[in-house]
Amino acid sequence: MMRMGGVDDDDKLDAEQAKQVLRRAMRMAAPFKATIAAALGFVALSTLGLLMGPVIVRYGIDSGIDAGDRTVLRNAVFAYVGVVALAYFAARQQYIFVNRAGEGFLRAIRIRVFDHIQKQSLAFFDRYQSGVLISRMTADIESMAELVQWGLLQFIAAVFLIIIALVLMLGLSWQLTIAALLVMPVIIIASRKFQRDSNAAYLEVRERVGQNLAELQEGISGVRVIQAYAQEGEQTRQFVESNRSLYRSHVHSIRVSTWYFGLVEAMGIFASAIAIGIGGWLVERGDVSIGTVVAFILLLALLFEPVQQLSQLYNTVQSSAASLDKLFTILDTRPDVEGGHRELDRHGELVVENVGFRYTNTDASVLRDLTITVADGERLALVGPTGAGKSTVAKLMARLYDPTVGSIAFGGVDLRDATLDSLRHRIVVVPQEGFLFGGSIADNVRIARPDASDAELRDALDAIGALERFDSFEEGIDTEVRERGSRLSAGERQLVSLARAALVDPAVLVLDEATSSLDPGTEAIVEAALDRLMTGRTTIVVAHRLSTIRNADRIAVIDGGELVELGTHDELVGLGGRYGALASAWEASLPTL
After folding, report:
1. Is residue 339 part of a domain?
2. Does pTM surpass 0.90?
3. Are residues 363 and 273 in the same domain?
4. What is the C-alpha to C-alpha distance for residues 536 and 376, in angstroms, rounded to an integer?
5. C-beta of residue 562 within 8 angstroms of C-beta of residue 534
6. Are residues 199 and 228 in the same domain?
7. Which of 240, 308, 383, 580 has the most CB atoms lying inside 10 A of its own CB?
8. pLDDT > 60? residue 7
9. In a domain? residue 123
10. Is the CB of residue 273 less than 8 Å from the CB of residue 267?
11. Backbone dihedral angles phi then psi of residue 79, each to the nearest 5 degrees
């Protein structure tokens, strides 16, 4: 089950799944291989510089201090400063190159996922809630950021450091190496327990974060309802409880980390004590030098930090692999509606033939054996009770969905064979409530045709009779509409939607209850714009209002997913059937003057 914040019950993949996902990610990172190679080079240089320090210390003690040779000691000091400076420079460069590659990879995957989502059909958005998709683009990508920005760097550096440090330690004294590594079984057992416990604690934190965000979002989105019923105190109480749960989970995760890192640190001190004790005995026997013991202890101190880092990275890799897997699931989803290769003509009949339809993951059919032919330039109204399937028919005619059975053609071309570009320019849908993006009125109209000139844009507004209204604003059509068009009235927002359609100049116009959410005064303005827009083109109107339906050339009555009546207003009223009953009900509901 999906929770807000991108937390799934399957946030942990098994080892083989994680490997497959990471291998695929590496293939996607191919464009950044030069940057990654440079980063790896600096990782190697930084690690070598770090490990050369103890070797130089050994040389300075044994060949400088013990031998009383000041020149050797001075050279050792200069060499030590040099390798420290080299390690510092390489460390800074490795961070720069790793973050450059990591940020480039994250940017590329954000763009790729967003572009893929934009190309999906409506059925995709029926399966995925918007909150889930936003979570994929934010929380899941941020989860990967930790890995690609520093995790992989730390992993490579830690492995490199452990291997070379062990080789150097064995070269210095195999006896000291064996003695010091007696603590390793304890660290290995503790690391396995830490990986298991910290993974559970980490998932708990992410779950609580998601719940906390859900409380926050509801509190902000529903603030008007909350204040209307004076429930601020209750909402705050619920948020306090959610926040307390988040606090407890964070504290638990800290406890898990504290015992483990404390144990590793203690084992490191214990191993150093063993090395000092046995090293002193070996020095006394003449088997090793004092410089060797000092260098060994310094190398031993360097060994334990990467062991801690590798344990930490385990959960980071698991979480990142799970996030990548979710993103790859989206990227592997093919659009239900894909374009063909034929261009649609400017004119032609719209033929719906034996169409049946059911939504994804449902067994019930929404439409059954529906056949309608709409002549070129005809206005067809789709009417019927709520849930009858009217809007579904309109969406199928615009090929926002494909029929489960049957076919829909325009000008003799099956819509499945048409190119998406010609389809979206020939058949345009005006929804019940047009969505406005941040920007100006002009920007929002131009969304339909980004290459449209200012003159074409003004002509589109003028064609629906809205130019004078918007020109009367202080900033004219350059007026900022603000978030979701809050600066404009509902009618003005719908005029912008109609202007988009006018700018495209489609052959078929599909109006999905385009005036149902407007008040009577605003509705008259929008209907006047609609009349202008419908002139000279095929129009499909989904409507509940009798005033809109009466103006149609024919009326199709949909009930229970089937076409039950088809004819003009007068013909259907004369039949005294379903439409006659609906018309009588509408007329009875009109106010008496």
Report:
1. no
2. no
3. no
4. 9
5. no
6. yes
7. 383
8. no
9. yes
10. no
11. -65, -40
Please state, in angstroms and rounded to a whole number, the distance separating the CA atoms of residues 423 and 412: 13
**Does 246 lie in the same domain as 395?**
no
CATH number, position 316: 1.20.1560.10
DSSP reduced 3-state for 326: helix
| Residue in this structure with the two tokens 């310094």, named with its chain if needed | 298
pLDDT in tens, 509-553: 998 876 655 656 566 777 778 788 888 889 999 877 676 788 889
Whether the predicted pLDDT of 409 surpasses 90: yes
Distance, CA of 464 to CA of 485 (rounded, Å): 19
Q: Are residues 131 and 280 in the same domain?
A: yes
User: For 574, left (φ over 0), alpha (ψ -120 to 50), or beta?
Assistant: alpha
Residue 241, in any domain of the structure: yes
Instruction: Report CA-CA distances (Å) from 496 to 122, 321, 459, 474, 488.
Output: 22, 44, 13, 17, 10
Q: Is residue 81 domain-shared with residue 207, that is, in the same domain?
A: yes
Q: Which H or E run includes 225?
A: helix 223-228
Which residues neighbour 269 within 8 Å (Cβ) at sequence distance 6 or greater? none
Going 573 to 575 to 579 to 585, the CA torsion angle's sign is positive
Q: Are residues 354 and 326 in the same domain?
A: no
Domain that holds residue 126: 15-331
> Using CA atoms, how far apart are residues 473 and 352, in angstroms rounded to an integer?
44
Extract the tokens encoding 234.
């209750």
Q: How far apart are CA 265 and CA 258, in angstroms?
A: 11
Quick check: 358 pLDDT over 70? yes
Does 305 lie in the same domain as 374?
A: no
CB 157 within 8 A of CB 47: yes
pLDDT digits (tens, 9 = 90+) for 265-295: 888 888 888 888 998 898 888 888 888 899 8
pLDDT tens-place string over residues 23-50:
777 788 888 888 888 888 888 898 888 8
Assign 6 a pLDDT band (cuts: 50, 70, 90).
very low
